[in-house]
Amino acid sequence: MQPPSPKVLIIGAGISGPILALLLKMKGYSPIVLEKVRELGDAGSGLMLMPNGLKVLALLDLASPITTSVPNVQAIRDYTWAGEEIGGTDSPSTWKETYGQPVCGVKRSVLNLALKSALKSSGIPLLEGWKLDSIVESTDAVTATSSSGLQETGSFLVACDGIRSAARAILLRQRGVVEIEPVFTGLVQVAGISRTPHAVLGKKGVWKNFYGPGRHFITFPSYRVEEGMTGWAITSRSETKDVETWQSMDADQLKDFKRRLKAEFEGWCEEVSELVDAAEKVIKYGLYDREALDPENWVSRGGRCVLVGDAAHPTSPHLGQGANQALEDCWWLSELLPNVCDGVDADELKRAFKEFAEKRQPRTAALVKGARMQGEMRVAGGGEEGRTRDERLRDGWRDLDAVKAKWDGLLRGPFSC
Fold this sequence. Notes:
Blueprint: E1 7-11, H1 16-26, E2 30-35, E3 46-49, H2 51-59, H3 64-67, E4 75-80, E5 85-89, H4 95-99, E6 104-107, H5 108-121, E7 126-128, E8 132-137, E9 142-146, E10 151-154, E11 156-159, H6 166-175, E12 183-195, E13 206-212, E14 215-220, E15 229-237, H7 251-264, H8 270-277, E16 279-289, E17 305-307, H9 322-336, H10 346-378, H11 383-398, H12 400-411
Parallel strand pairs: 1-2, 1-11, 2-7, 4-13, 11-17
Antiparallel strand pairs: 3-6, 4-5, 8-9, 9-10, 12-15, 12-16, 13-14, 14-15
Helix pairs in contact: 1-5, 1-9, 2-9, 9-10
C-alpha cells in the first residue's frame, strides 16, 4: 500500500501561501494553510502583476481570469507634477509576446479571495483564526502550535506569513539570531480609489508616474473598465512610522484627509488633481523592509522549515516586484522539492531548502535594495534636487537599450514560456 502523502504546514494565506500550497498539491504533497486572520476582507490596495509573476499563476490557471478582466498595461509614461512628459516606452504592449504574459494591476483583496477559492476547489484545508505560537522540529517531523493550543504536525513547514512573520521570529530565535523589527524606510504611501475622472477617460492601459517636490504619484489600471474606477498611490517622506494596518478611513476621516491632500497637490496637473478630488476610499501606511538575511538563515536549525516571500525578503513597493518575487519563490521551491513518488527524506529536504535559499537570496536582496533606492529617487525635493532627478529620468529614457535590458532582467524569470 502506498504511504500517505507528506503533510506540509504552510503559515500564511496571503499570496505566496496559497500559491505554494497549490503547486505542492500538484506534486503529490498534502498541504494545509494556517492563517491568523479570521476572515479575509477588503483590505489593502492594488498591486502590480508582471510577466514573471503571472507565469507562475498561469501554471495554476489563475492568470487568465485576471489579465482578461482588467486593461493590460500598454505603455509607461513619466511626467512632471505640472504634466510635462519626461519620457516613456510602449514596450509593455509587447511583453505578452516576449515573456508569455502581460503586465496588469489587480486589487489585492480580489487576488486574495481568488486564491482562497482555489484552495477550496483543490481540497486544500485553510484554517483561519489560527495564530502561530511555537514551532518544534524533530528528526522526522515538525509541529506548529497555535496561541489557543491547537497543533498541526507535518513533514515540513513553510513560512509565508509576511513582513512581520511570526514563524521567522521563532525560527531565527532558535538559531540564536537576534531579530529586529522591520526597518521603516522614512517613506509613507497613501493609496486611493477614485471614480475615473474626465481627465483619465480614454487613457486606460497607461502606467503613469508623476514626479513633484518631495512626492511621487502613480496610477495604473487595476479595475475593470465597467467598474469606472481608477487606483492610485502617493509616496512622500514622513517621520511618523505609520504601521501598515491596511484599514480604510471612515467617512469623516476621508473628508478631512482629502481636504488636506487637495491643498498639498494644489497646482498639480488636472489628472492628479481630479483623482485626488474624486477619491472614495483612502488608506495610509508606512513603507518597511528588512536587511537581507544570509541564505543559511532562510532555513531552520533543524532543516524542516524554510522562509518564503515577505517572510524572507520583505521589500518596499517601488519596483512593483513584491508579489512577483514571492511567486518566483513559490515556483523555485516547488521545482526543487522532490516529487512525492521519489521519496522525501530529511537529507532531500535540507538539500532542496539550501539550494532554494542560495538561488533566491542574491536576486531578492538586490531587488530590496533597488526598491529602496527607487523610493528615495521618487521623493527628491524641490528646486535643484528635483530638477536633477527629472533630468536623470530623461537621460534614462533616451537609452532604450538600457531600458529594455533593465526590464528583461526583471521579467524573464523564473522560467521561459
